Each structure stands twice: as structure tokens, then as C-alpha cells.
Predict the 3D structure of the following.
Amino acid sequence: MAKSSTPNGIGRSASASDVNAEASEFGRTGLRRRMATLAPQRSLILGVALLIALVVAGSVLVPGFFSVNAVRSMLLSASLLGIVALGQTLCALIGGLDLSIPFVVGAANVSLLYLTANRGIPSGIAVLIVIGIAVIVGVINGLISHRQQGQSLVVTLGTGTALLGLTQIITTNSIYSGGTIRGTVPGWITAIATPDGGRSGFGFAPSVLVWLVIAVVAVLLLSRTWTGRAIYAQGGNPVAARRALISERGIWVTTFTISAVMAAIAGMFLLGFSGSAFYDIGQPYLFTTVAAVLIGGTTLIGGRGGYAQTVLGVAILTVLTVVLVGLNLSPAAQEMVLGMVLIPLVAAYARLPHPRLRV
Amino acid sequence: MSSVRRFLAGLWRTSRRQMSLLTPFALLVVLLILCAIRSPILFSGGGFSGLVGESAPLILAALALTPIAIAGPAGIDLAVGPLMNFINIGIVIGLSQLGWGSTNPVLVVCFAIGVGVLIGIFQGAVIALLRLQTVIVTLAGYLILAGLNLVWLSEPSGTAPTWLYDWLWSPQAQQVFSPALFVLLGAFVLWALLARSTFFRNLRLMGSDERTAYTSGVRLVATRIGAHAVAGVYVGLAAVMYTALIGSADPKAGAAFTLTAVTALVLGGASLSGGRASGIGAVLGAVDVWLISYILTTFRFGMAASYVVQLATGVVLVVALVAGGLLTDLARRRRRMRGQTG
């Protein structure tokens, strides 16, 4: 994918932040202007500061915060959220949103167990089938979202709902009880998502390693390859991207396909973690992925942000959740606190420019 | 029957003028024909009042989403479901906790609208003054309100005021001119007045091109907050009708309701890029969504029924989007062939 001959400046020259910075020359002076050019770093500094503050708060307020078991389970849940959030990050970078993620997570979760336990398909092939379905969903999402610019939120909502409905119809007549399918989960999938690493002998969940590999590949993809720069160009300035002969449709399809595949992988890991399949297991990811992307500092307008930022966002969210659980807050109260944290954070670094500064 | 035909003909003419209304209108006709075959009882007085009563919350919620969609860009109020639930709990439980009681219809309706408008103004002010994206702020609103609802009330309980319950369920309400119909008609009249106001014209201008609106002297902050205030009025009314429908308070239904209302809005031809969304479209979309699930319940799918509804809603949503896009392209091409611009 990496073409050394292509101009490396595509992403940079077309990015929205540059356009905004240029426009703000008119209105801002001195310190304020320097603050504006510092915007990306500002989100990083704020994020790291918040993370440190949360860790300190956790170690003071929550007994056993640094215990081996707590750290292990934090790593596991961070790895799952991190894998899913990669897709949401890419979609946000091109100015879209993928709301089909929770449904794909649920569908992958249920259909993997259905295929292995109910249909007797070997687990390796079943995993490939599930990923194949995810690719199909992702391609459909990308194609239609590209055609209906600005409607990706609703398109993915539609495909996701339809996919989960279809999965439920197919699997309902099997061993069914209250939205849960029972059966024996393949051993290696359980091992991947066991907090202490189970049979793998790592001492932590192998899913963390998977996340690490995915994260490194994603960061390199975004910063070093032609495809990565094209994603930024597409989000920052679609017209300029078209002039640079970037296939708009190709970028949308690639992005949404990666997103669906990541969601499917997380859904299968969740099966290993919980030991039984559940349709609605992906529901928390509907908004936590968006929150992780936003807290990290990737805007939903496109063109600004990156996966490294999202990793920071995932870390913040995970530690925040542990602190809130440690304070004995109910899931509902946790949700409330998350909502209250979101606005000040986003207000600190993802404000839109005033109309008079827009071009 | 002739009045129905005249009404449909009028709708047809409107949808010819506005291409975006063509898809929801065609879908409505198909669904009504299916209804006539599967369940003709819908066309009796009782059936019609049932339709009005059961679809009223969705229609009003879709109308609430419309001004925010017009204000754009990507103007989706994700908080609409939890906010409706919040007011729902307020009517059933909060009013007596406050010591006001819920026997006075005027007080209850004013309370519902007041809470909706206040929270709407607050959200709108955060969006407009801090210049944040609508989706982000309403996502935070969604999380806060959904959490608050569950903290307030852990499971469905309580009973709606008797007079409110009777709006839908008393024997007198089982006729064409039911109280629910009057609420809806009132909401439509208010909408028709608003849609002709300067405020709405400014709102549409701001949604299509914020910069042009700014240079034309439109007060952006006030207009955006106004859009959210109007939305609040309709969320309040939706909450009243929802309380009448379920007869109690339910803290959990909000999430699904947001998604259904957004489906209705988009099915009604609203463009989320801003500037283009109509009240008629939202109402048509909401009725379509309700009819789809209604028709599907007339089949016997047994345990899979809710999944079939889910599948069908998703497929119809995507197909309607694609069809709407194709039709718009077609219209644009035809206009270009005629040598007109725009």
C-alpha cells in the first residue's frame, strides 16, 4: 500500500486545521494564535494530565487499584474497547460515524457460538466466516455512506439493525433462552480473553497483544502510508482529495470495512470472555467508542486526530470506569458522570471555528 | 372516502414539488394498501384512534428532531428519547414528589413543555455558545439523562394520571375525533405557524449556509437556541402522549426511542447536512415507521416477531435512503437537461 513516489504532503496541505489556522490569522493575535496552532498538542497534554489525575485518584480512592487482578482486567477491557474504537476513529477521520459497531459486535458474538456449537463448524473456519460477514457489512456501509454523504450515521444504524435482526432470526430456532445461546466456546478463544492469560501463559490476556499489534499497524498506516494520508486528506478537504486523484469511494469502503472487521473481532473476543453469547453484548460500545474517540481529541468533522489519541481516550475511559466502579456507583450513575465529563473535555479542544473565520 | 382521496391527492402534489417527500409518501401508500389487505380494522373509528394514539409520541418526537436537523450540520438530537423518558417520569412521579400533584391537565402539560424547553435551551446554549458539534452535546445529554432516569427510577413503575390515561384508553376515546387527534392537530397548527415565521426562514438559511446567514445578519446563537427550544415543546408533548400510551413511567425505553425517531426523521426525507427537513416529511416518516411494525405484527412470526421488525426497519431505512438519493439525482439530471440551474 505504501507508495514512496506519492507526495507526502497531500494530507498536510489539505488538512482542516491548516485551513482554519490560516483563516484565524485575521481574527487572532499573539498568544491566542499560538494557542490555536497548539490545538493538537493541547488535547494530548490535557489527556495525559487527566489520565495521571485519574490514576492518582484511583490509587487513593479505590483499594486494590494497583493489584495484579485489577490491572489485568483493566488491560483486558481496554484492549476490547481499543480494538473496536479503531474503526470508529477511522470513520471519524473521514467525517463519518459507524453506529453499526454494537450490532456487528453482537452478531459476531452470537454467530460464532452458533456456528461452532450448533453447526459443528471448526472454530478456525467459523472465525473466517464471521469476518467474511463483517467485510460484507463494512463494504455495504462504505458504499451507501459514500453515496449518501453525511448520512453515514443513519446508514450504519440501518444496516446494523438489519444485521442483528437477521442473526437473531437465524439463530432463534436453535438452543435459545432469553437472548442467550449456550454451548461450549472453543478453548483458544476463551484463552485469548481470559484476564490472567489462561493457557497462553502470558500472565495477561493475549487480546492485549492483539490490540498492541493492531495499534502499531494502525498508527503506522495512518502516518506512513499513502492510504493513511489519503484518509486524512479525504476528511480534511474532500474537494482537494478529489483533485489529488484519491478515490473517495475507495477510502469510504476501506474505512468502514476495517471498522466492521474490528467490531467482529471484539465480538468474538467477548464470547471468549463471557463464555456465552448474548445479542446485546455490544450495546455499551455504541457510545463508548464515540466517547473514546472524542476524549482522545479526534473530531467528528474529519481530518484531525489519530489512533494514538484514541488509545489515550481508551485508557482514560477505562481508568475512569474503574474509579467509578470502585466508588460503588451504579452503571446508570457511571453513564451520567461520563456524559458530564464529555462536554468540558471536548470544549477544551474540539470547538468549531466561528463562521466569520471559515472559508 | 372522497375526503381521503382529496387529502392524498394534495399530498401527492406537495411531494411532486418536493422530491424529498416522494419516498416517504410512496412508502405510505404501499403500507396503507398492505394494511387494507392485512388488517382493515385500522380504517374503522377505533382502529384510527388506535393508530393516532400509538403513533403520536413517535410523530411528535420526529417533529422535535426536525428543527435541529434543519439547524444542521449533522444536527441530530440523540437526547430526544431519554429526555422524553425524563419528562415521562416527571409527570408520573416527579409532580407528586414536588407536591404539585398531577390532577390538573393544564399544569401537567405546561410542566412537560416547560421541562422540555428548559433542557432544550440549555443544550442549544451549550452548542451555540461553546460552538460544539450537535451530536457530541446531545450524546452527552443522552448519557446524562439516561443515567439520571435510571438513578431516579430503577424499573418501570407508577401510574399515569387517570384523565391522561383516559385520553387514549377510555371508551369515549375510541373514535375518529379522539383527544390524541386534537393534541396532534394542535401540534401541527403550531408547526404550520412556525414554519411560516421569519425565525424558521433564518433557521433554514443558517442550516444551508451558516456563513451566508452570518453575513446576512442572522443572529446565529439566538436562532440555534430557538431551534432547540421549539424541539423542547414537541418533546414535552411527545412525553405527555407517551405517558398516556404506556400508562406508567419507564426509565429504560429512551435509547430505542431515539433510534426509532431518527429513523422516522430520515425516512421522511430530512437531510442531515442541514437546511433541508420538513415537518410533513417527519410526520410521514413517523407514520411509515409505525405502520411497518404494525403490519409485521399482523403476521405470526412467534418468538422471532421483534427480530423481524428489527430486520425490516433496518432494510426499509437503508432502501429508502438509497431510493431517495437516486430520485434526487434523477431530478437534478432532468432539471439540468431542461437547461435550468440549481
Summary: Chain A is about 70% helix and 0% strand. The beta strands of chain A are 180-181, 277-278. Chain A has a mean pLDDT of 82. The radius of gyration of chain A is 21 Å.
